């Protein structure tokens, strides 16, 4: 079976590893991606703070090691009836099975704020830090936009900034996270959210929850509960938009609609995984789990003795704090139970993206080991279940706020109750 994988990120690599393992010679796997290297993008939040950059892996080396072919190009369109993909160079690629793992597109959520969406935006954050260190930015807001996004980096940026200010003795710096969530990282459950709230309070980071910032706003002071809180700089996460692949179905925001086996609805022979799907939680670990589901379905279609596994998400997150990371875990199950939160690893190996195959494979490459990762410490086996449903993840703010310039030149967030 000819299998095309569009995308060389977490989902694409996890799927390639799964197909090679599950189907072996039954599949001929080719990856189409314009990228030359792979890195854990979620670790780039540290780069502006002087941390050692995440290791980059040449995709050609990964493909050679894993046993799949690689072509450096991107998908321009798909013809499901002919089962062909036309790439950006005008070439046609035939397939028996296609897995679309090209992710979502990032757009600035606030036109007049520094946007952080990954390695390409590190310099924006670094500039804000320089302004803080020089005394030009004493009030900084980290904004989570409404809609489909992944809020954890906003909290990481706030905590790492607080740690930087503390290390420099800047005790007059005021930091705030503005989020449409009802509580910080509420998707992980009450226990985890309360632990993160306590961590933020300990670092002196305020949280304005159930609040959305209007996209047309200009950089601003916060009018809330009768108070005006001037802000000198804003760092915002991007708004995510679906890839809207020509020839494939998409929802109103361009995301690919998928079923519980990650098959794209309405077409034959096409699957999708990662941020480009209509599943509302946009996170690397979730993308890897979706890729495993798709790989099992494709392997079964190729005749491998595999029982396709429906997508049952387990949400895992490592919150970078500048000190000991905080580990968060929420599993599909009873929504009344709490999630797990700890200062030790809740999965193994303890990587930022918990891909079932990708994480141990990268660990072996980076650590130079030939065998499986060592067994986790006994305390790392905590399992607490919590529902992660399809409707979970999209934020519904209770307040709307607008950003403007104040007469004094500060940035102002002006609240509009809705």
Keywords for this structure?
2 domains, alpha/beta, 25 strands, five-stranded parallel β-sheet, 7 helices, FAD/NAD(P)-binding domain, elongated, 418 residues
Map the helices and strands.
Blueprint: E1 2-6, H1 10-23, E2 28-32, E3 37-38, E4 57-58, H2 59-66, E5 69-71, E6 75-79, E7 84-87, E8 92-94, E9 97-100, E10 105-107, E11 114-115, H3 122-134, E12 139-143, H4 152-167, E13 174-178, H5 190-202, E14 205-208, E15 211-213, E16 222-224, E17 227-229, E18 233-236, E19 239-241, E20 270-272, H6 284-301, E21 314-319, E22 326-331, E23 340-342, H7 358-367, E24 399-405, E25 411-417
Parallel strand pairs: 1-2, 1-9, 2-5, 9-20, 11-18, 12-13, 12-18, 13-14, 15-24, 16-25
Antiparallel strand pairs: 3-4, 6-7, 7-8, 10-19, 16-17, 21-22, 22-23, 24-25
Helix pairs in contact: 1-6
Concise description?
With 418 residues, this protein is an alpha/beta fold. It is 22% helix and 24% strand. Residues 221-227, 332-338, 342-349, 374-387 and 396-418 have low confidence and may be disordered.
